[in-house]
Amino acid sequence: MELSGIHTMTLPLHIACMYHLKHLHSRLFILAHELVDKEPELPMSWLAVGVWYLISQRWRDARQYLSKTTIMNPRLAPGWIAFAHSFALEGEHEHAITAYSTAARLFPGYEKEQRHRFLWLTNLFRTHLPYLFIGMEQLTLSHITLAEASLTVAEAICDSDPLVHNEKGVVAYSNKK
To answer: In the chain, helix, strand, coil percent, each to 5?
Structure first.
């Protein structure tokens, strides 16, 4: 970020890290303002604003800006994941599942794309996270079978994520295994 200013390929990861590291919350606020001032037509600018509102637990404001992100670029999966988080954090589980499902469709994930001539590019965006989050929401709703199905897909994509194994353990416990 210091070398190139606005590097759109790394911004979603950068913003996510700033969300999770409390000492960077004020820096995220500054980054969001800088992005909106410099690049208001960039969906990532509004993603940063929406994530900052998630930190502030202002769900309606977060959804407003995250919705703007998904409208500006309907194929921006990090925007859909953050949008889904805004529902999940407020307890709107069905809406969260719908938004996570959209993100799952946008990331290549589990689909076999061997014929795709840009396979290397799709692998850059391959992630298990939407399926993991769907499984977590299904567990919250006590839909154990649906949760297990989503978590199995998440595990097939990434079998090294400890959170996937933890959630599969919750499923096993719920099934008395």
So the answer is: 70, 0, 30
